[in-house]
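User: Fold both of these, please.

Assistant: Here is the first one.
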Amino acid sequence: MGFLIFMNMNIIEKALEEKYGDYLVGLDVYETATSLILSRIVLNKESRNAGIGTQIMTDLINYADKNKQIIALTPSSDFGGNKNKLIQFYKKFGFKKNAGQYKHYEFKDDMIRYPRGLNESKLLIKTLLREALDKTIKCNECGWTWKESESSKKDLYNCHKCGHDNTPKKSLNESLLTKKESDLKKIADFVNFAKEYLEIDDDVKIELAFEKTPDIRTTAYYNNGDKRMRIYVKNRAVIDICRSIAHELVHHKQNIDGKFEDAKDPGADGSEFENEANAVSGVIIRKWGRLNPEIYD
């Protein structure tokens, strides 16, 4: 069960009281390192409908965005306000109903606002994951294409246009990487394509390892410090190697964009960084495959 630890000193609450104390009857903001819970904000009668509430909310939101804090609240008529008007008021500041895709299970409050950029990134990752996982199938007979999501499992590989059965053979046809110049050129061309897609301008250090070393515990790794990646390639298909490179290039992009600065373990399974790398690398591979279908031969 999740829990929240409240800070002893509510920095923003004290700052707002000092700035707007003459207009306030009551203000309660509970602050943690990652959230602000607005329990009460009540203005005196003389200060209502004068834009003071808007100024207070603007200051509160700027503080939350700067510190990457979620704001949670529950509109109420307990202090003389109209609940429906309050809901519309908070919506103007980006608050959403705490449900559906915006649901955060640590908060029981009715409305929630994620710091600028945070929730948008989560939604983008979800969209990219869905796109990456929704495979495109091409008919070998007539060239028609369709998405896996557009077919039932029973007739997944039956062409929607001509009816041809495109069920793949059980044998793996993907060619394994060799040390031939032609294969290495395929890798180099893919790296340039992926760099352009990710808008990476700096020189990336990529080492292809034909033997396992202690620093390669899986199939690839990226060193955040010297921005170098090593890819294990022995007995692996070219397309599979490209997929690993794309994944690590996404991490490189995250690193040079400063996303790792406050991250404790960006490579942890299930982290937002890993989810983004899985999603975006899948998109890159699919786009590259459409331009270079021979990589599947």
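And the second sequence with its predicted structure:
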Amino acid sequence: MVNMSQVRFLLYPEIEIDRLEGGEVANEENLRNGVLTQFRSGEEAARNGRKGGIKSGEARRRKAAMRDTMNRCLTMQAHVDGLSDVLIADGGESTYEEIITMAIINQAAMGDVKAYNAIMKVVGQTDKSDMDLENQKADTELKQARKQAVTGENETEEALDKLDSILEELRNNAVKQETE
């Protein structure tokens, strides 16, 4: 049986290895090698941090420019024989975005489960069954009843509506940020 040290020796014969068994052992020489990568002063750390910040900003700007280009391209008019006429007749503009959407719908209609799941994700439909949703609603009502029994608080419809609107706004903001 060949161990890793022997394999390393066979692959890289120019590297001298003291022994063919065991691994690298920490010694003074390989511990000193890390000194070169350590920051020697706060000033050097600040310089290196600034360089990283500049590169990060460049990457963010590149990503934003690519997102803008993608959005502009998706809203461009395009013509696909047979499909563009259907989109325009239905009130669409026959943009790349609409054409791609129709292609995904077509794939889902032909049985592509990934395409179907992508559509369900976009339109916000859940894969939970009606029974799961009913159980979730019953569980929520039970928790509210327990809370009322323990604390004496009674949540009014107005308070619940206000909370629902806040949660809906949070959800919309999250979806908006996710798409950006």
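The mean pLDDT is 77.
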